[in-house]
Amino acid sequence: MPRYSGARWRDLNGYVESVTWDVREAINRFLRLATEKGFTKRNQIRTFLEQHEDRPKLLALLLERDSRNWKRYVERELAHADPGADEAPET
Fold this sequence. Notes:
Distance between the termini: 57 Å
Mean pLDDT: 82
Structural class: mainly alpha
Order of helices and strands: HHH
Oligomer: single chain
């Protein structure tokens, strides 16, 4: 494991703290949604999110903000949403 000291450690520690709070917020939102919708299983939330009307907007936003890192994920998600999208049309 690499060793960090001084300013580099403070920068890394700040990043870890930020990620920690993002994870806590995501878990809180997950639980709040489950409670509001009466979901008792994880796949209920996944199905709800996969079918949400704002999903295409979110995927487009990911590409707009950082296509280099999100392109493969978004393409895979779009192919999953429309399995015939990558296939050539029959003649």
